[in-house]
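Long-time lurker, first post. I've been practising inverse folding by hand and with some scripts of my own, and I keep getting stuck on stretches where the structure tokens seem ambiguous. Below is the full token string for one chain I'm working on. Before anyone asks, I'm not after the true native sequence, just a reasonable design that respects the backbone. If someone could post their per-position residues I'd love to compare against what I wrote down in my notebook.
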């Protein structure tokens, strides 16, 4: 018999097609106008060979090899669940008693899965918070630098998280849209918490049909879909700030800046203007100056500036631009450029970040929170900017500067991860692993044998969403989705909530953790809480039983276009921004007051240590972009068929311009070795004329499969063995993965096969099992 069970994932809502206890297919959600291909990877991934079948412990850990022990040795011993729970509880109690709450790193960054109750990271935070606290991780990898910066200069993070000026407003009013980083189709496959409706492509088509002209300012032509007929401006990576400064100079030299807006709505123009003109530092930021850094001709820079000044222009940049050394600067300068054009807060004009980064940005929606667990208290804990995780391991007792604060780094004894994959998301993985190994105990909750699970001491097998009931919900999506359990738990997998409840039980606080609710009661409780909030926002949602039976609730879109900062634009006195001056801060006294040499009081051009203009480019002459994958979500779904079909000889593709390949004797489809001083990986070469020469690109997410020795060659193609691990600056301390130079050569030797999608072979003989 075939059953259809409503369900949801970050990459789309669907019905799971179930036969004899197995997911055999998926049927896209009927209300989705443009369902994505990633859904097709679900059945094979849920039933993959790489599912963790039962709890395990690392043999060396059981023998007492703790701090400094090598992890990732794959020497795992199966454990019965009750023993695993007992070991975890005893070790947690010991670490807390001996070293304090802050010695447990429970930040556990990662996307987890769409269901909001069983959201692994939220469950872990709740468990650790109720137990006294933990060291958590602040900001995120996506836009950590940007979200630290924007409150200083615009007083809000709406400009990058939404709601932003919506597509109907753009289609109606915008004439030209300048898109730094483009408007890639691949990124719009996903929405955190579940994509009920993929409306990005229909909206892009509508805007193009309405006559909006798109300009794709990016090293990669493929960042704009063909149907937009976008002009391509191939810029050198990490030089966008210089291009924007050149545009600003072009505006000033023609007197095209909006002096009224700069006077009434901004502060600090008197400091930024002399910098653009070169009066404060002796270097006028002319289009010619910008051309020498960006590789974009001065005429093009002038034309872009004048075009944007003559008609309604929307400026946008993808989140990727700030994932680079000095990543705060291009975003700040884009705000300054929008201020010079005077369009901030006008329909179809101004600036916002991430239209091309995630499905849901700019989609008409009401500002409603998503269904979810209440925020956790973290009484005894402290927070570290998420991308500084390796430094946290390396420098206990030292100070980390961040956004005007001095953070004393704790000595991490225990690492606990649920719902994230640091050996996917972090930079310079060989260095991360050295720091990681300093912990005494590492616990990972995972459905699959990811690199994080392989680097744990205790591995707890988690169910996937299809093995439990939940609610999918995102503040960026109109639909709240019922997620019905489709199949029984696979192997001995358990829900994150249930395993943590058992550990809480052993530690004496089960009831505080569960609030004596089971799954069903929790779902009803969380939904009804949300229904009340929705009611206050004027939306009358059906009761839980109807929602659950119908499978979804649709929150209707608002009737009117949404324009970000409209009130402020109309009357800056009555509706000031939440900045110290109440205005757009083109100069920030607060930021200047931090005294960081690398981030001053106004946006400025600063050379990254790794980009094509740097001395290091003589040795590593290619700029590597590590972009979001079209074939999966980060490391998730990598074992599925959509991801597998994109690989070349089983390795992740590396995109390269044919000219760069010819100079190296490389041909399409061959295996190459990509390397720098931090590490090396194999990749399959794909030639693409749409890449700026000197730039190569590789998607993230191929599961790390290193040869066993320290720093060993990664056989699969995980770009994070190459990326550099520095903060964007002390201001934002964001991830700077996009600043990375490499060299590429043919790999002609025989290449061992990629085996990382198989489960590691456990130690089976009882004699190998230590007591
Ligand atoms: N070089 C480079 N690196 C990058 C980026 C880049 O642009 N370049 N981008 C960065 C960005 S923006 C991000 S957001 C990060 C993403 O990094 P992550 O969010 O850490 O990546 P995911 O692979 O989504 O990790 C989620 C993990 O949760 C697991 N999981 C799913 N459901 C459950 C569950 O129910 N229970 C449990 N216990 N686990 C579950 C999945 O199997 C998966 O391993 O990567 C960052 N890394
Ligand atoms: N299919 C899919 N979609 C995803 C994700 C996924 O894993 N898979 N991840 C999601 C997540 S967590 C996030 S945070 C978002 C991230 O969204 P983004 O950060 O926008 O995504 P990226 O692919 O890293 O970058 C977008 C484009 O920016 C260009 N770019 C890179 N560096 C530069 C530069 O210096 N200058 C200019 N002008 N352009 C540059 C690259 O060519 C790249 O294709 O994507 C989300 N969407
Ligand atoms: Mo992200």
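-- Answer (accepted) --
I ran through it position by position. Result:
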């Amino acid at each position: 018999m075939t059953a259809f069970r409503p369900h949801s994932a970050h990459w789309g809502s669907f019905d799971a097609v179930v036969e004899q206890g197995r997911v055999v297919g998926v049927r896209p959600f009927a209300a989705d106008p443009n369902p994505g291909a990633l859904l097709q990877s679900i059945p094979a991934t849920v039933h993959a060979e790489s599912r963790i079948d039962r709890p395990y412990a690392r043999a060396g850990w059981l023998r007492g090899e703790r701090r400094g022990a090598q992890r990732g040795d794959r020497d795992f011993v199966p454990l019965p669940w009750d023993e695993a729970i007992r070991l975890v509880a005893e070790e947690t109690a010991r670490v807390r008693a001996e070293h304090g709450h802050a010695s447990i790193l429970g930040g556990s960054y990662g996307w987890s899965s769409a269901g909001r109750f069983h959201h692994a990271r939220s469950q872990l935070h709740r468990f650790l918070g109720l137990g006294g606290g933990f060291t958590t991780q602040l900001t995120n990898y996506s836009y950590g630098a940007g979200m630290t910066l924007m409150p200083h200069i615009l007083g809000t993070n709406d400009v990058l998280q939404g709601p932003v000026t919506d597509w109907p407003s753009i289609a109606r009013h915008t004439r030209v849209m300048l898109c730094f980083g483009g408007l890639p189709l691949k990124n719009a496959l996903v929405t955190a918490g579940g994509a009920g409706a993929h409306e990005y492509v229909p909206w892009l088509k509508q805007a193009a049909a309405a006559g909006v002209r798109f300009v794709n300012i990016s090293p990669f032509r493929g960042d704009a879909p063909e149907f937009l007929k976008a002009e391509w401006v191939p810029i050198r990576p990490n030089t966008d700030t210089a291009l924007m400064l050149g545009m600003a100079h072009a505006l000033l030299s023609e007197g095209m800046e909006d002096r009224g807006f700069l006077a009434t709505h901004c502060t600090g123009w008197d400091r930024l203007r002399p910098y653009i003109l070169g009066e404060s530092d002796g270097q006028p930021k002319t289009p010619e100056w910008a051309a020498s850094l960006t590789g974009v001709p001065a005429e093009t820079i002038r034309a872009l500036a004048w075009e944007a000044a003559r008609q309604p222009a929307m400026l946008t940049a993808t989140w990727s631009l700030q994932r680079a050394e000095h990543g705060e600067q291009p975003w700040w300068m884009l705000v300054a450029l929008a201020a010079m054009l005077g369009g901030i807060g006008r329909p179809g004009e101004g600036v916002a970040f991430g239209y091309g980064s995630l499905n849901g940005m700019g989609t008409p929606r009401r500002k409603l929170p998503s269904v979810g667990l209440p925020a956790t208290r973290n009484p005894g804990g402290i927070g570290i900017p998420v991308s500084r995780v390796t430094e946290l391991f390396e420098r206990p007792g030292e100070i980390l500067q961040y956004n005007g604060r001095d953070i004393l780094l704790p000595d991490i004894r225990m690492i606990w991860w649920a719902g994230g994959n640091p050996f996917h998301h972090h930079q310079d993985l060989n260095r991360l692993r050295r720091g990681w190994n300093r912990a005494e105990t590492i616990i990972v909750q995972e459905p699959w044998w990811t690199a994080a699970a392989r680097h744990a001491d205790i591995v707890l097998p988690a169910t996937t969403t299809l093995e439990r009931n939940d609610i999918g919900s995102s503040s960026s999506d109109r639909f709240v989705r019922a997620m019905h359990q489709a199949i029984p738990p696979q192997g001995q997998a358990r829900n994150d909530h249930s395993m943590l409840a058992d550990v809480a039980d052993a530690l004496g606080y089960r009831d505080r953790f569960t609030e004596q609710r089971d799954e069903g009661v929790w779902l009803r409780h969380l939904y009804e809480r949300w229904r009340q909030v929705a009611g206050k926002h004027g939306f009358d949602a059906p009761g839980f039983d109807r929602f659950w039976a119908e499978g979804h609730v649709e929150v209707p879109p608002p009737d009117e276009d949404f324009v970000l900062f409209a009130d402020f634009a109309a009357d800056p006195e009555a509706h000031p921004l939440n900045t110290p001056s109440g205005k757009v801060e083109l100069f920030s006294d607060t930021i200047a007051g931090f005294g960081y040499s690398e981030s001053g009081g106004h946006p400025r051009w600063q050379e990254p240590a790794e980009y094509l203009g740097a001395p290091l480019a003589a040795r590593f002459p290619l700029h590597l972009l590590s972009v979001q994958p079209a074939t999966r979500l980060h490391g998730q779904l990598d074992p599925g068929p959509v991801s597998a079909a994109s690989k070349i000889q089983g390795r992740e593709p590396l995109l390269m311009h044919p000219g760069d390949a010819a100079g190296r004797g490389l041909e399409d489809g061959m295996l190459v070795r990509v390397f720098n001083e931090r590490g090396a990986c194999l990749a399959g070469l794909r030639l693409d004329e749409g890449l700026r020469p000197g730039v190569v690109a590789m998607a993230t997410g191929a599961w790390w499969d290193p040869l066993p020795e320290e720093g060993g060659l990664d056989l699969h193609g995980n770009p994070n063995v190459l990326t550099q691990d520095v903060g964007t600056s002390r201001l934002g301390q964001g991830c700077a993965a996009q600043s990375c130079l490499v060299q590429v050569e043919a790999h002609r030797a025989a290449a061992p096969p990629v085996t990382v999608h198989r489960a590691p072979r456990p130690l089976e003989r009882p004699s190998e099992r230590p007591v």
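A couple of notes from the structure itself: The chain has 26 helices and 29 strands. The two ends are 47 Å apart (CA to CA). Happy to go over any region you disagree with.
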